Each structure stands twice: as C-alpha cells, then as structure tokens.
Amino acid sequence: MNGLGPLGMLDAMREPRQLAPEIMDYYLKGQEDGRLRSGHPRLEFWRTQDVLRRLLPAVPARILDVGGASGVHAEWLAAAGHRVELIDPVPAHVEQASALPGVIARVGDARHLDAPDASADVVLLLGPLYHLTERADRVRALTEARRVTRPGGLVVAATIARWAAVHDMILKGRYVEEPVRRVADESARTGVLRGAADTGFTTAYFHDPAEVLAEFADAGLPGAERYALEGVFALYAEEWLDDPERRALLLDVARRTENEPALLGFGHMLTVARVR
C-alpha cells in the first residue's frame, strides 16, 4: 500500500511525468524544428495546415498547441491572427517557440494540463499521442484536452499509422537490414516501436485507424471525424513535392480522398471532435 487516500491517489495520477529518456534524447538533438520544413515530411505539414485552416473557428481563436515542439504549426497559426499558447515537455522546444511572434510557450505534460476548464477554443495534440505507448495515458491526454476546451470547441489529435515504420523503411531502402526489419515488423504487430534507434526515430505508438475513435469516445469525445493527411502519397517519390504544378495536383487528390476509410492507414491521420 502506498498510503495515499482517494484524493492523494488522484493527485498522483495527475502529476506531470517526464518523457522516457530515449524520447527526450531524440528531441534534444534539435532535429524536430526542421523535420516538417524540407523533404518528404513537407506533405504532412501542408496537409495538416490545409485541414486545420478549414476547421478552425474564426480569428482570433484561443488555441492550445499541446506537444507543439518548436512551434512549426504555432508559427503560422499566430501569423494568421490566432492566440496561441504552446505546451511541450522539452525545454529546448519551449525556448525555440518562445521566440516566435505571438506565441506563448511553457513546459508541460499533455496528461496534466495547467489550464482552466473550458478555457480554449481549440486544443491541438499534434504530437503527444505518438509517444504515449499506454492506452490509459492516451485517453488521459484526450480527456485533459476535452476538459480545457469550451463546449463547441475542437480537439484535434495526430496519430501515426500502424504500418508506418515498415512503409518508411521500405521507402528508404533499409527494410533489407535484418535489425531494422525486426523492429519495424514488431511495431506493425503490436503498435509499439521499441529499439527505434535502428529506424532513425524513437519509442512511439502507431495506431490502427479504428482504435483512435474508441480512445476519443472513452475520453468523452464521441462522433470524431478522421482525416488522412498524406494517404497513399506517403509512399510517393519526393519529386512530386518539388514541382509546384504536380504538387498542386497531388494536394488536390489528397484533399478529395482524405475521408476514404481505405486510405486512413497510411502516414499520419488527424482525428477531430467537437466538445459537447
């Protein structure tokens, strides 16, 4: 027995916790700020921006960007006129985001948001669910997001597809390496990426599209909608992104197919719920 009464146990559950050391070490390398700004990940960035621009309330909405890293999305949201507060567990990210015009940033944990009830118009979780490998932690983060979002506001969460590591390693030509293949295959089987240094990432959770809806529902967010970001274009050659004409065609098709159930299992997905 730990000697905690019911209130003490609740407080202990809500105490912010540190990232696992290997996750913190990965982000302390400082690579996250540039990840969405070049190469193939640009598609994820453009598609996230496209979906959010269509769903967000009118300017100036109060947006809580939880797990917003160095502020890649907070930057354009603030430039558009929204009031953006970024919360991230990595102090180096918070320092970077604090330098962005119009962005307030502080250290915090998605599972324990230091924010009043119903105080935000939108809560974005564009990273936290990637690294919460326990379902209870993911539901807790979503529950916290719902708590601080006003009725009628939006909770938006990004997830990575279950087979993402396998597809990515094939795309990069590394799936032929036995240690890499073993780690990627295990992540597709269990959803948990461990020993991830072989793949160039870190410990993470990869969702099956159907389970995201169940996690939202268990957090008091029923009726969520899902949007494929890259869709099958996660597997396409990068040169399509470098040619403005072909890029426009690709983005148009990605938008038109973003709700196709068969295409939700590639790359990244946004799940969006309106708080009741």
From TrEMBL:
A molecular-function term among this protein's GO annotations: S-adenosylmethionine-dependent methyltransferase activity
Entry keywords, A to Z: Methyltransferase, S-adenosyl-L-methionine, Transferase
InterPro entries: Methyltransf_11, SAM-dependent_MTases_sf
UniProt-listed GO biological process terms: methylation
Domain annotation Methyltransferase type: ranges: 64-156
UniProt keyword Zinc-finger present: no
Key word Zinc present: no
SUPFAM superfamilies: S-adenosyl-L-methionine-dependent methyltransferases (SSF53335)
Protein name, per record: Methyltransferase type 11 domain-containing protein
Organism: Planotetraspora phitsanulokensis
Lineage of the species this protein comes from: Bacteria, Bacillati, Actinomycetota, Actinomycetes, Streptosporangiales
